[in-house]
Design goal:
- This protein has helices spanning 2-23, 25-63, 68-117, 120-125, 128-142, 149-169, 171-218, 220-225, 229-282, 287-328, 396-403, 426-432, 447-452, 460-469, 473-478, 496-509, 526-538, 557-560, 580-586, 588-607, 622-626; strands at 351-359, 371-380, 385-389, 411-416, 419-420, 433-436, 514-518, 549-553, 565-570, 573-578.
- With 627 residues, it is α/β, with parallel strands linked by helices.
- The strands form two sheets. It has a six-stranded mixed beta sheet, sandwiched between helices.
- The longest helix has 54 residues, at 229-282.
- The protein starts with a helix and ends with a helix.
- The structure holds adenosine-5'-triphosphate and magnesium ion.
Length: 627
């Protein structure tokens, strides 16, 4: 079983190499030509050295004088060979380096590009640490053997050349070559097979260790405030320890095989000398030939190792490649359609949900996903504001994700202006509908860049207009560098409410025709929240103000009261709909929820006023307090 899988690794590894050659054939050719030139010169040098010994040194010793002319000729030949060797090494190294780093760069780009194409559901199943190691260490591992591949290919050619020249010299010496070289090759193959499982395990652990590290840094705030440093360190240490052990296992195997691989050619040289001395006495070969062959074995010892290096790297390469390919081949991406909503219709869009069912993919592939939404149907008519209200976990965020097509329904349809969102092009979709998510995300960049996002036609005026609508112009104007202020990683230099309003301004700056607010102003003072919504509704269509229909997930009475209609969801189903007043009167659950929330709000405001009225807390800390 084990040997079967390792043979498998060899075959698959060679396939990965084949792919590399197909992707960079010209550079590979340059490197191989360099390597073959080098190999040819190694063999040539062995024969020149043999010739010098046989034709110059031995006769000189016999006669007691040195033939200057022959010596000069030999020196010139050796010099020429050395120059060609240098050229060969240069070509090989340069080619191999280019090929390896080009492939790495290309695949890093492909992997990260793919991350952006893959749906939210895929990202939820894959940790950030894994994603980081896929784009980094896995890509590197996959193309690591490329560094020595041209050398190894050149060496193979060289070995064939060596065997041929051995046969041309003497069959007995050729037999020694035939025994040693294949043995070297076989030893290398065994080595690589033994290495396979160890390397695969090490590569997997590398990913896990980087995943844990990422999580602890990312959650540094929680780790610190909860006093979990020791446990977190222990969790990291235990996995890092496993990685260490698995790397030591790799090293131990190296320790056994490397000396063997080193020793075999030396044994070959010894055998050549013994057999050669015999043949010399028989008069079958000359001194020059014997020296040439002995020298050949000595100089071949090093290049032959290149084959071993490639074979030893193959398992890790296959492990890395498998992990890279898992990303590149991941399915579930959501292909966009071809349709474009009429750009002239810049008025508010209509959003329609019809009998939408949705379940999140299960954690384990064989389990069925639990249904989160069932028979959800409602409409946000053009220019209207609809509030989505429901207890926690009811499915409000899921509905918001469906509305902007972060996920697709299992059945039923989501339509914008009567067109299924699955039929729209990416540009038409993002140009029409904008989501402001429950958890705001801010890039480590300036305020301006965070809002404009390099979108064409979004200038400073539009940025300010969006900030005004989001009631964020005041605090941005007060920032030391205004729009040019850097907000820190994930906006750590901003308060929770400020961050939320920046992300709202970002959505508004794109002039969406449908605005989906998922609890997007929860950290903002309730009056300000209501003012934002009221501002959006009253001045819709005025210069700088998008004319948008609004779907808003809300809790606060003041906000809900502004909506034209309220949709009340419980357990993934629409339970009731109507105006706020109607629902208060007729739906007990609704009245309870809104009242309970209002009470909590009063308590909360008494404990700590919203950040509009107080100076922001030291960076980072408000995260915990706000949520
Ligand atoms: N990525 C996910 N994978 C699996 N289940 C999920 C995922 N996201 C949400 N759920 C589940 O789907 C249900 C609805 O979640 P959703 O986030 O839509 O609720 P919500 O109404 O927005 O709640 P809240 O008011 O707390 O924001 C919950 O039961 C939740 O556990
Ligand atoms: Mg939610």
């Amino acid at each position: 079983m084990a040997s079967r899988t390792s043979r498998d690794v060899l075959v698959r590894g060679l396939r990965v190499l084949g792919r590399a050659v197909r992707e960079q054939p010209r550079i590979f050719a340059v490197a191989v030509v360099g390597s073959v030139l080098f190999g040819g010169m190694v063999i040539a040098s062995a024969y020149v050295v043999g010739g010098v010994v046989g034709e110059v040194v031995v006769p000189s010793i016999a006669r007691g004088q040195v033939g200057v002319g022959t010596l000069a000729l030999a020196a010139a030949a050796l010099f020429g060979i050395s120059v060609l060797r240098v050229v060969g090494i240069f070509g090989r190294r340069l080619g191999a380096g280019y090929m390896q780093y080009r492939l790495q760069a290309a695949y890093r780009r492909r992997v990260t590009r793919r991350y952006l194409d893959l749906p939210v559901a895929w990202h939820q199943r894959n940790s950030t640490g894994t994603l980081l190691s896929n784009a980094n260490s896995d890509v590197e591992a996959a193309w690591q053997p490329i560094a020595t591949l041209p050398f190894a290919v050149g060496t193979l050619v060289m070995l064939v050349g060596a065997i041929v020249s051995l046969f041309a010299t003497d069959w007995a010496l050729a037999m020694v070559g035939l025994a040693v070289f294949p043995a070297l090759f076989a030893l290398n193959v065994v080595y690589s097979r033994r290495m396979a499982p160890r390397q695969a395990r090490a590569q997997r652990l590398r990913g896990e260790v980087s995943g844990i590290a990422h999580e602890s840094f990312d959650g540094a705030l929680v780790v610190k405030t909860m006093g979990r440093e020791a446990q977190e360190t222990a969790r990291f240490a235990s996995r890092a320890g496993e990685l260490r052990d698995s790397l030591i296992a790799v090293g131990r195997l190296r320790g056994v095989f490397d000396p063997l691989l080193e020793a075999l050619p030396s044994l070959g040289t010894l055998a050549v000398l013994v057999v050669g001395a015999f043949r010399l006495r028989q008069g079958a070969i000359s001194v020059a030939e014997l020296v040439s062959v002995a020298f050949l074995f000595t100089v071949l010892a090093f290049p032959v190792r290149a084959i071993g290096w490639v074979l030893a790297e193959l398992p890790r390469s296959v492990a890395g490649w498998d992990r890279v390919r898992r990303v590149l081949d991941a399915t579930g991406e959501m292909p966009y359609g071809q349709r474009v909503l009429d750009p002239a219709a810049s008025g508010p869009a209509t959003l329609t949900f019809t009998d939408v069912h949705f379940s999140y993919p299960p954690a384990e592939a064989h389990q069925p996903g639990a249904q989160v939404l069932g028979e959800v149907g409602f409409t946000v008519p053009a220019g209207r504001t609809v509030a989505l209200v429901g207890p926690t976990g009811a499915g409000k965020s899921t509905i918001a994700s469906l509305a902007v097509r972060l996920v697709d329904p299992d059945s039923g349809t989501v339509e914008l202006d009567g067109v299924d969102v699955r039929e729209l092009t990416a540009a038409s979709l993002t140009g029409t509908a904008a989501l402001v998510a429950q958890v705001p995300f801010v890039f480590d960049d300036t305020v301006r860049a965070n809002i404009a996002l390099d979108r064409p036609g979004v200038g400073d005026e539009d940025v300010w207009a969006a900030l005004r609508l989001a009631e964020a112009d005041g605090f941005v104007a007060a920032l030391p560098d205004g729009l040019d202020t850097m907000v820190g990683e994930r906006g750590t230099s901003l308060s929770g409410g400020q961050r939320q309003r920046l992300t709202l301004a970002r959505a508004l700056a794109g002039r969406p025709r449908l605005l989906v607010l998922d609890d997007a102003t929860s950290a903002v003072d309730p009056r300000v929240e209501a003012a934002i919504l009221a501002g959006l509704r009253s001045s819709a269509g005025e210069p700088g103000v998008p004319a948008a229909s609004i779907l808003v997930v809300a809790y606060r009475r003041a906000t809900i009261a502004l909506a034209d209609e309220v949709i009340y969801v419980e357990h993934g189903r629409v339970v009731a709909r109507g105006t706020h007043t109607e629902l208060l009167a007729t739906v007990p659950g609704y009245a309870d929820l809104v009242t309970a929330y209002e009470q909590a709000e009063v308590d909360r405001t008494q404990e700590r006023p919203y950040d509009d009225e107080v100076a922001p807390l030291p960076s980072g800390l408000e995260l915990e307090v706000d949520r």
